[in-house]
Design goal:
This protein has helices at residues 3-23, 31-36, 42-45, 106-120, 131-136, 140-174, 176-184, 189-223, 235-260, 264-268; strands spanning 25-30, 49-52, 62-70, 86-88. The protein is of the alpha+beta class. Helix 6 (140-174) packs parallel to helix 9 and helix 8 packs antiparallel against helix 9 (235-260).
């Protein structure tokens, strides 16, 4: 491009900016921007004119007319706070084409867009991505971390179940005479199973109590790293404790039932 054309382009652009600064522009802002500007409500901001510096300092503040207020939208990760945003229509250039669709088959929409793009602009590669995929890419680290934690949690449950089963077998073997005496004195199979269940439930409940406290501290510290986060109630911890208790009872129930159904005569002869 020759210097003459460059100078002419710059001059035309400066003239356009000067004209725009003189007549003003229309914008749409989000609710946070209206709040930061001091408006008590979004309705109060509509129709107001403010001065904004868009171009060179020589142009001064551009009269900016607020013609609408939209809800706050998050365009980055939820770790980062929402920004006050001002939207204005710029017809001079565009880098992205946004398409809103209403269909149950989004892949068909993408295929049709790609076909139309290649027909109209064959020299430019088509690079289409769904907004859901773009947002999901912001949380790849969290998804990977969740999968790792889930794998270790499953491994820990398996090891704990093996330990409980071994401890139940060892305890039953040591208390064979006691179980036989209890059955001779009138204890039912259900009573023996309840005895085993309660004895093995107590350490599980104590461990759940301490584990819930540690989990609450860790999760609270992690959630506070985000701009928007949920308040943790007691329901997740009660659910986890109940699940751990059910897993423990299910692990020892079969062995406890087998011991409780044994012949008490053989138990009393056990040495």
């Amino acid at each position: 491009m020759s210097p003459t054309l460059t100078d002419a382009g710059v001059a035309a652009n400066n003239a356009l900016e000067t004209a725009m600064a003189a007549r003003g522009i229309n914008v749409v802002i989000n609710e946070l921007a209206a709040q930061r500007m001091g408006f008590r409500s979004p309705q109060e901001a509509v129709g107001k004119t403010i001065g904004v510096g868009y171009f060179d300092p020589e142009d001064g503040l551009v009269p900016t007319h607020i013609i609408g207020v939209v809800r706050d939208s998050r365009f980055r990760s939820i770790r980062e706070p929402v920004d006050p945003i001002m939207f204005r229509l710029d017809r001079t250039f565009s880098t992205t084409l946004l398409v809103r669709y209403d269909t149950a088959n989004p892949q068909a929409v993408r295929a049709a867009l790609e076909q139309t793009w290649r027909r109209l602009v064959p020299d430019v590669p088509f690079d289409g991505i769904f907004s859901e995929d773009k947002v999901a890419g912001l949380y790849t680290a969290e998804q990977a971390r969740a999968q790792v934690f889930a794998a270790f949690a499953i491994l820990a449950v398996i090891v704990a179940c093996l330990g409980l089963f071994g401890l139940a077998a060892f305890t039953a073997e040591r208390r064979t005479k006691e179980i036989g005496i209890r059955k001779v004195l009138g204890a039912r199979t259900r009573d023996i199973i309840q005895l085993f269940g309660w004895q093995f439930s107590k350490p599980v409940l104590i461990a759940s109590l301490f584990g819930s406290g540690v989990a609450w501290l860790v999760m609270s510290n992690w959630l506070h790293r985000f701009d928007t986060y949920i308040d943790m109630g007691v329901a997740p911890f009660l659910g986890a404790s109940l699940l751990a208790l059910l897993i423990a009872i299910g692990t020892i129930a079969g062995h406890a039932f087998k011991v409780a159904r044994a012949n008490p005569i053989l138990a009393l002869r056990y040495e």
